[in-house]
Amino acid sequence: STKTAYLAFDYGASSGRLMLCCYDGHTIDLEEIYRFPNEPVWMNGHFYWDFPRLFHEMKMGLKKAASLDVEIAGIGIDTWGVDYGYLDEDGRLISNPFCYRDPKNAKAMDEMDVVHPFKEFYEIAGLQKMDFNTAYQVYYDVQHRHYILDCAKTFLFMPDLFAYFLTGRKACEYSIASTSQMLDARTRNWSDALLEKIGISREILPEIVEPGTVLGELTDEIVEETGMKKVPVIAVGCHDTASAVCAAPLESENSVFISSGTWSLMGMEVREPIITEKSLQYNFTNEGGVEGTIRFLKNISGLWIIQNLKKKWEEKQPDVSYMLIENEARSAERRHFIIDPDDARFMAPMNMVKEVQNYCEEQGQGRPETIGEIALAVYNGLAEKYRQNVVDIEEITGKTVDVINIVGGGTKDRLLCAMTAASTGKAVKVGPVEAAVLGNVLMQMKALGQLKDVAEGREIIKRSFPIETFN
Ligand code: LFR
């Protein structure tokens, strides 16, 4: 047939999956061929990713793909941002990477702030102040785990690590590197000034490659183990949010996106970084996108709190689904509860239900008791953040926002979509759900010459998936 097939690995903070994506010259269709949980492990006061397990799952996915008897043109990998690992001189992974919710990060940020004021970083990197930014994590390594840096020969971000173990090629992809607070947002390269402040040697940082670069083919070992052919691995927008925005069917320069999932990444696609007094004051971030774009956005806690409420409720009531939570929130009796979803206390609490209840009580709102009331406190908090964010974006950019495009897994939450339209007063367009996977595929297609540019890719997305409007 004339169909071309691609494999897209999309690793999120709670699960990962492998999608088979076929393009017939007109539309793209997707099939999930493998899914697995991703559970960071809490061990002696720290949160780690289980990297060998995640790599194992990658190979299981490839095995499954190999058994399908489909010709695969390329493989792309995207993951959450900021996290990384070190390789020794023989390419062995030194220590399991930390999870970005590790409590050491807040401490590291405070330590670095004392020596190097945040403003010095912001002026160059243009990144929002978040304690998990790679710069703080690496600063922690420099200060408290120097033995690791003593034998580290290569630094790689999470998707780069996977690509390295598949192909043997060591490179840092630009969009993921742009989440580190170690790049100069304007030159799009490592910033020597920032590296010096952090105390990491430039020598262990590999070259930065653009999204859409063919990294290399699967190694013989991987081919042997999985039954795959010698397929090329392509650096896509390796940061999941870069991929999601790549596939967002934005219609104009006044469109705002929300990449909705565990986090809500809300902002605009712009041509040049916006690093001003105001963007600093409002704590906006400039992350690197595909085709030289900048994702000017704010990182807002997203459905993370709802996900963790669900886990807690499931312990007593196994049939609690997202649908049920949504419906309970729609019909909740007392509707005034509201939290600040970005309050640090919601980052990784032991009991999310109590945390939300206590917050409301401490704020003088009374205590939400039912599933509906507790969930609504979160929904109200998110909707209010979105509203404020639109106001801030309009003020900073001087533009008037016309449409908000919501993409990603969070679009399945129809209550949140409706509340977004209501709170912002803007037209909201919803879809596609699988934005990260689709952006991943678009950049593979571009790398292999099947696509002229992202604009053409977004037209394919619009043809292939329903986009719904909420007013
Ligand atoms: C979304 C995301 C965000 C990033 C957060 C932590 O999955 O990649 O963009 O800020 O995870 O890495």
Quick structural overview:
The chain is an alpha+beta fold. Helices cover 40% and strands 22% of the residues. The site of beta-L-fructofuranose has 13 residues, from helix 10 and strand 17.
3D architecture notes:
One of its GO terms (molecular function) is ATP binding. Belongs to the FGGY kinase family. This is Rhamnulokinase. Residues 6-245 form the Carbohydrate kinase FGGY N-terminal domain. Strand 2 (15-23) and strand 3 (28-37) form a beta hairpin. It is built from 18 helices and 22 strands. The strands form six sheets. It has a seven-stranded mixed β-sheet with strand order 18-19-17-16-20-21-22, with helices on both faces. The two termini are 42 Å apart. The chain has helices at residues 51-66, 104-115, 118-125, 134-144, 146-151, 158-167, 174-177, 192-198, 220-226, 240-246, 277-281, 304-316, 322-330, 352-362, 371-397, 414-424, 435-447, 454-464, and strands spanning 4-11, 15-23, 28-37, 41-43, 46-48, 72-79, 84-87, 93-94, 154-157, 172-173, 183-184, 189-190, 208-209, 213-217, 232-235, 256-260, 263-270, 285-288, 294-301, 403-407, 427-430, 468-470.
Topology:
Blueprint: E1 4-11, E2 15-23, E3 28-37, E4 41-43, E5 46-48, H1 51-66, E6 72-79, E7 84-87, E8 93-94, H2 104-115, H3 118-125, H4 134-144, H5 146-151, E9 154-157, H6 158-167, E10 172-173, H7 174-177, E11 183-184, E12 189-190, H8 192-198, E13 208-209, E14 213-217, H9 220-226, E15 232-235, H10 240-246, E16 256-260, E17 263-270, H11 277-281, E18 285-288, E19 294-301, H12 304-316, H13 322-330, H14 352-362, H15 371-397, E20 403-407, H16 414-424, E21 427-430, H17 435-447, H18 454-464, E22 468-470
Parallel strand pairs: 1-6, 6-15, 10-13, 16-20, 20-21
Antiparallel strand pairs: 1-2, 2-3, 4-5, 7-8, 7-9, 11-12, 14-15, 16-17, 17-19, 18-19, 21-22
The structure holds beta-L-fructofuranose.
Beta-L-fructofuranose is lined by residues 12, 80-82, 100, 239-241, 261-263, 265, 299.
